[in-house]
Design brief:
The protein is α/β, with parallel strands linked by helices. The protein has 12 helices and 12 strands. The protein has one domain: TIM Barrel, CATH 3.20.20.330. The strands form 3 sheets. The protein has an 8-stranded parallel sheet with strand order 1-12-9-8-5-4-3-2. A hairpin with a 4-residue loop joins strand 10 and strand 11.
């Protein structure tokens, strides 16, 4: 079956759409070395067959949106443009091979991700929105100009800071592109400490943004964030948290929490979530479980 032919926004108007899970954990489980500054981008460069296999594993689990491996590929890398296009092509191939319609979302990670020092969980980089826009523009332009492999939308994800959200929206303005905007949050605020209503309100009037929400956060932080978003925008909401682990950037490892209760996905849906999936350390089995819990996934 071909990739999804209709806009994702049309599906979100009447049902929950299932996202994929963490690409890094799946690639690691498949034997990929993700050390170094490129993270999943290293697999794009060295083991593209495994990137496509990871996307395929999520599609088989029922995911309807595949997020590309471009999160940590910044404009300063000498092979950036080629790797970005390769990531789109691999996700597109997995989408076309699926037995249901699948959208491809091109990951646009935050400035801090390219630094590979954990600063995407702090924000406040010391750069102005104009400087951040100059950083993001080349990558976004490459992704949008990728011809037959162009993504269905952009995943502006793990954004820690309203300055960076403002910069990303500035780059998108007037392009006609479609995107979602997803913050990483903690304790009812962005990682940089700004109030969530203020953060979500930035996207409320942006026609390019089809959904807003949170990712790469503790599942316990999801519902309050969705409620804050629903108070300032009527756009569909999204949620794809991690498993509650905390990333230790100094030692490049995760500190895992004790096993927790099932995610309250019904409450997330009632709050307005229409895109639900997983981020770091959420694999295909969990996505398949979410599909059953949500009554989501491709119509049968």
């Amino acid at each position: 079956m071909p990739r999804a032919t209709g806009p994702l926004s049309e599906a979100l108007a009447h049902r929950t759409v299932l996202l994929d899970g963490g690409l890094s954990n799946q690639l690691a489980d498949q034997g990929c070395d993700l050390s170094g500054g490129l993270w999943t981008g290293r697999a794009l460069a060295e083991r593209p067959d495994q990137v496509e296999a990871a996307h395929t594993a999520y599609a088989r689990a029922g995911a309807e949106v595949l997020i590309t491996a471009s999160y940590q590929i910044g404009p300063g890398h000498p092979r950036a443009a080629g790797l970005l296009r390769r990531g789109l092509a691999l996700a597109g191939a997995a989408a076309r091979a699926a037995d249901h319609e699948v959208w491809v979302a091109a990951s646009v990670g935050p400035y801090g991700a390219v630094l590979a020092d954990g600063s995407e969980y702090r924000g406040r980089y010391g750069l102005t929105p104009r400087e951040l826009a100059a950083f993001h523009r080349p990558r976004i332009e490459t992704l949008l100009e990728s011809g037959p492999s162009a993504p269905d939308l952009l995943a502006l994800e793990t954004v820690p800071d309203t300055d960076e959200a403002e910069a990303l929206l500035r780059v998108l303005a007037g392009t006609g592109a479609r995107a979602w905007l997803s913050y990483t949050v903690a304790a009812g605020r962005t990682r940089a400490g700004q109030p969530l209503p203020e953060a979500f309100a930035l996207a409320a009037g942006a026609p390019e943004v089809i959904a807003v929400g949170v990712n790469c956060c503790d599942p316990a932080d999801v519902l309050p964030a969705l409620q804050a978003a629903a108070a300032v925008t009527d756009k569909p909401l999204l949620a794809y948290p991690n498993d509650g682990s905390v990333w230790d950037a100094a030692h490049r490892t995760w500190h895992s929490p004790p096993a927790g209760a099932p995610w309250p996905t019904g409450a997330w849906q009632r709050a307005g979530a229409r895109l639900i999936g997983g981020c770091c350390r959420i694999g295909p089995d969990r996505i398949a479980g979410l599909r059953s819990a949500l009554g989501a996934g491709p119509p049968r």
